[in-house]
Amino acid sequence: RIRAAGRKVWAMGGLKEVQGRRYLQRPSALELFLDGGRTAFFNFPGDRGDVGDAFKTLVRLRRRKNLRRHFLFDGGRELARGALTDDWVNRRITNLEYLMALNTVAGRSYNDLTQYPVVPWVLADYSSDSIDLSDPLVYRDLSRPIGAQTEERREKLRERYDNFVDDTIPPFHYGTHYSTCGYVMWYLIRMEPFAAAGVNLQGGRFDCPDRLFWSVADAYKNCTTTMNDVKELTPEWYFCPEFLLNKNKFDLGETQGRGRVDDVALPPWANGSADEFIRVNRQALESEHVSANIHHWIDLVFGFKQKGDAAAEATNTYYFLTYEGAVDMDAITDPVVKASMEAQIADYGQTPHQLFRKPHPPRK
Q1: What is the average pLDDT across 59-80?
Q2: What is the pLDDT of residues 156-170, one digit of tens each?
Q3: 113-348: CATH class
Q4: Class assignment of domain 2-72?
Q5: Could you tell me which of 116, 26, 3, 18 has the C-alpha nearest to residue 70?
Q6: Which in 54, 215, 223, 320 has the greatest CB count within 10 A?
């Protein structure tokens, strides 16, 4: 990469892959994958043809037969061509590797906080002194959304869905989403660049201390017992202990009843170690129990239970603006209305591109 006159210039020979991306529900962006694991995300907010022209120009200039390129493609077909699902079913890749591949193919990106990669909570026990990962009772139910883990919650969600009446908005179970830019910053507030983004969102200061992420157990409890919190996780929960530690010594303030906010409070079985928490959490993700059940969660987030009657039956429907194709942003000519709609999409979250129309196969 060469810096010149305020610009960033990458050597074309280092370009390995080009992916078409959505940005705020418009097919207007490209993500470039370069040598050394570097990436770059570009949104073209003008005419829809601009992104297509940029894609064609990059492909023409690269002139490399093994350049991987996908422009607004069908993610399910790409999975079939790449044999990713077969690799996972036959245990040639790990659960985390497969989940990250699905996120990439479905348009999720580390470069877009509104479509950050999403992974599931897998454990449900954050209060025991020790944990036995061979015990099915320590795991959440992966066949149901995180917001519908108990029958009591499911009954309330069904009641909300059945009683919702609006001439323009379809009924939904959840008025919030399992992945939004706000949730990403909430989880990762102790690390940059998320700390700076969070401070910017709050007008130059960290959020109220009582609203910050302070406890793993408390976060899980809220996601499974309250109607307005259904957050799943970010990938960092399975490989990055630093997000749990206030190594930057940010002044996160003092709560009304729990003292100062600093490192995240961990479950007793982690023995006060962020490294141990990540190790056990990752071991749980790769456990036989999760391997035998995570295809159900894939059905909910990336698969046939994401939309339609199957989603309604699974208590898995969200506010309509979170879904791809729910609104044609280019057809909105009023700039005030368009800006309002974009703000809602950014705030409510975005459901990934649907990759599977049939039940996902289990792991062998």
Answers
A1: 70
A2: 999 999 999 999 999
A3: mainly alpha
A4: mainly beta
A5: 18
A6: 223
